[in-house]
Design a protein that fits this description.
By secondary structure, the chain is an alpha/beta fold. The protein contains 14 helices and 13 strands. The protein has helices spanning 2-15, 42-59, 77-85, 105-115, 130-134, 145-158, 170-173, 176-192, 209-228, 239-252, 268-272, 283-296, 310-326, 335-344; strands at residues 34-39, 64-68, 93-99, 120-124, 139-143, 163-168, 195-200, 232-236, 304-305, 351-357, 364-373, 376-377, 383-384.
Length: 400
């Protein structure tokens, strides 16, 4: 009950802020507009979907429309584009949020802007090159692949790891966000005297599917641990790979700092054989249950996460931010206002971030932001690593 009251109080504070400043949007009555949220399915990106559902539950199905792009979005590009564009058919639609903004989102936003320039187009966790999607979107918010690339390695070093193993596949490595993060991670490993290793696993959107990709990680992880030792830390770029990786790390050794898109729900319940259905949406309780199970399996001090789901927070937080902007209570491209909206769905969590820096030109974008939450390492007791307070060396923001 205290948690519910706290959230309601936070919402009340958000909606009573007075609109001021010439650049802020004029207030609009709440009933005058709708918001659309597009995510992947529960099987591909459950946290993203649950965050969208939470926002819809908060404001009602009559005001918030949800849509799902295909699981095999790389092969069904036109369907993905049309799914996003279709939301603009609603004359009351004023904001469309896509999380994760998979390939096709840029084209969908361009089509929407041609038809309905009044609609705010917002991308969460864009898969397309950030300058490209930033040219079509009003706002882009990704996890801070630069700062996190450095901070994940620094955390692994502080936990006593001597090797860092990065697991991915060619499609993901073609993304600027992920290829730059690899470069940052490798440079950080050099700085901290650690070995950096690239391993490959099947793409879940390929012919092998999710089941085949997971089976491969399940089989290979014990071999990797035998090869690189129990003081090795592991990171994978795909959600579907996370559960089998965690399961085997808990069984055979090794460390896991945090997921690509961190959450206590990202891979942990399945890997631990626990359920969180009875505490859905209560991330303090979810983290507590996951942490207890990790410690029971001897993983204390070796496994980490963000206390609140990134995907959940982005879906709900960006929708909340859009609502605040439309109501004239926030500025669209103000990171403090974005953090305020995120904070409604992650009470007590520390966030940090910055504007995206183009590695080629060194120029910072005005509408593209990179954000991250503090890293929580589970144990008896668990503890935050203070990652949001660490100053990342400037050289890493142009590492490529």
């Amino acid at each position: 009950m205290k948690k519910i009251l706290a959230i309601l109080l936070a919402l009340a504070m958000v909606f009573t802020l007075a609109a001021c400043g010439e650049e802020k949007t004029e207030p609009v009555a709440e009933e005058d507009f709708h918001i659309g949220i597009v995510t992947g399915s529960v099987s591909q990106s459950e946290d993203d979907r649950r965050g969208a559902e939470a926002f819809q539950a908060m404001y009602g199905e009559d005001r918030v429309t949800l849509a799902i792009y295909p699981d095999n979005f790389t092969e069904e590009l036109e369907t993905t584009i049309q799914t996003i564009v279709n939301l603009s058919d609603d004359p009351a639609m004023k904001a469309i949020i896509v999380n994760q903004a998979v390939p096709g989102t840029t084209e969908a936003f361009r089509q929407i802007k041609e038809r309905r320039p009044d609609i705010l187009c917002i991308a969460g966790e864009a898969h397309e090159d950030l300058p490209e999607i930033g040219s079509a979107a009003d706002l882009v918010c990704n996890n801070d692949f630069v700062a996190r690339g450095y901070l994940i390695i620094k955390t692994a070093h502080e936990l006593g790891c001597d090797t860092f193993v990065h697991i991915s596949f060619p499609r993901h490595m073609s993304y600027e966000t992920m290829s730059r993060r690899v470069a940052v991670m490798q440079a950080a490993c050099d700085e901290f005297g650690m070995q950096f290793v690239l391993e490959t696993a099947p793409d879940p959107t390929s012919d092998v599917g999710v089941a085949g990709a997971q089976a491969y990680v399940l089989e290979k992880t014990p071999e990797w641990i035998a090869k690189y030792g129990v003081n090795s830390a592991y990171f994978c770029t795909n959600d579907a790979h996370t559960e089998p990786l965690l399961k085997q790390l808990l069984a055979y050794g090794g460390c896991f700092i945090e997921a690509d898109l961190p959450s206590p729900l990202m891979g942990y319940p399945g890997a631990l054989g626990i359920t969180t259905d009875d505490i859905a949406g209560d991330f303090e309780a979810i983290l507590g249950r996951v942490e207890e199970a990790v410690c029971e399996k001897g993983g204390a001090g070796r496994f980490g996460t963000w206390a609140y789901s990134y995907g959940y927070t982005v879906s709900a937080g960006l929708a909340q931010h859009a609502m605040n902007v439309i109501n004239g209570e926030s500025e669209l491209n103000n990171i403090a206002d974005i953090a305020k909206a995120y904070g409604i769905f992650s009470p007590g969590a520390e966030w940090n971030g910055s504007k995206y820096t183009n590695a080629e030109t060194g120029v910072k974008s005005d509408n593209t932001f990179l954000v991250y939450q503090d890293t929580y390492i589970m144990g008896n007791p668990g503890h935050y690593m203070g990652a949001t307070a660490i100053e990342v060396p400037e050289k890493y923001f142009t590492t490529k």
